[in-house]
Amino acid sequence: MRERAAEALRANWTGTSTVPSRQLYPHQWSWDSAFIAIGLRHLSPLRAQLELETLFRAQWGDGRVPHIVFNPAVPLDAYFPSPDFWRSTTAGRAAGAPGAVQTSGIVQPPVHALAVWLVHRADPGLSRARSFLARAHPRLAAWHRYLLDRRDAGGAGLASVVHPWEQGMDNSPCWDAPLSRVTPTDPAAYRRADLDHGAPEDRPTDLDYGRYVRLAAAYRDRRYADGAGEFAVEDPSFNALLISSEYALARIEAELGLHEASSAREARAQALTWTLVERLWDPAEGLFFSRDLRSGHGDGELVPERGVGGLVPLILPALPHRVATALVRTACGPHFGLGGPARLVPSYDLTGSAFDPRRYWRGPAWFNTNWLLERGLRLHGERARADGLRRALLDVAGESGFAEYVDPYTGRGCGARGFGWSAALALDLLLDDPAGRDEEPHGRSADVASVAVKREGFRDV
């Protein structure tokens, strides 16, 4: 499996970064590259560093990290929305979009500081020789500052997303209510390239896609200015990943000798955890829910849809014990089936009326969310459950050919095969030592530099 996963990553390497899939996703994606770097660190710490450095070279002046960095060698019609839709170099000029590369104008979940820290730990000597942390730090700090300041639409300190693509779980039923207010763009006005490579029953519907296009075009036409769109949601998964990366950035600052900044950042991560609980936790349901800031009055309303994003805050070390215990109980209950009827935790409530085991984020299980939950379970002392989920993830990864996502009951693969983060995170599960995570941002990490791994094809970039 190690060699098959390594080969999948080799096949997706462009020379400067790794695409999620050659056919379906032929450019660089933001949170994909973070997860891919976490796996690559076991094969080539240098290539893992370059993966992240390539992404951050496309960072905008206001601090945002765009969710797509376009490869100019790829034809425009290979993916939609393409660079001529986003117009980053013109529409994004006021926000500081780079002039030398074309990008999208929206963002994705901020896993990057966690990835940078784990990549550093894979080979600290190489990292220090290349000043990897010193060069990454100001970019990560600007990225977090953008999210915590410019995206605080609710005024409570949490970051909001302005498009479902930003949260990463694109067409989750959690977005149905907030999206229902958006008038869709006529499908005749654009061509969906994703349907050339994926079965229509696995992909978002034309109605959903039309709403995505409308929201993205409106944001572009506002010159990517934040604060005035139809869609603004505080999401538990997005914010949990931001808080986790705040802990990682605190570790990075401590490593760089910035101890005062490190202490302040760790305190902020703890405070943000409490804010997350206060605003998005539902004790009666034992789950975190998204808050739709454009619904109801005042602070908006929680969206009563159970998505896997509501379990992701389990990765946070300062989560109150009662909340962590309730999250584990919910994960193992009928809605998510951990350790029961589901082989992997689904993206959406197994009992929900909108559940679909094949259609993108409306039910299938994904490797990145299950990888996060494995870490969260282990962090909160659920070793047996974490071990069981790890075994299931590796079994399904191998059986499905590192599929993009799978049927949560059967493990049958859907979407692309040889998918970037599926291969990378399988490698991480194979080669990381979960018992030795004493250097991670949560207080537990392995120095994987000592892991004996074949690195043929990865030493030289």
What is the 3D form? globular
Number of strands: 11
| Amount of helix | 40-55%
How many strands, what sense, and barrel or not for the largest sheet?
4 strands, antiparallel
SS class: mainly alpha
Distance between the termini: 23 Å
SSE arrangement, N to C: HEHHEHHHHHEHHHEHHEEEEHEHHEEH
The residue ranges in which pLDDT falls below 50 over 5 or more consecutive positions are 443-461
Assembly type of the chains comes to single chain
**Average pLDDT score:** 92
Number of helices: 17
Percent strand equals: under 5%
Q: From the alpha carbons, calculate the radius of gyration and give it in angstroms.
A: 20 Å
Spatial order of strands in the largest sheet: 3-4-7-8
Pfam families: MGH1-like_GH
Keywords: Glycosidase, Hydrolase
Family: Belongs to the glycosyl hydrolase 63 family.
Protein name: Mannosylglycerate hydrolase MGH1-like glycoside hydrolase domain-containing protein
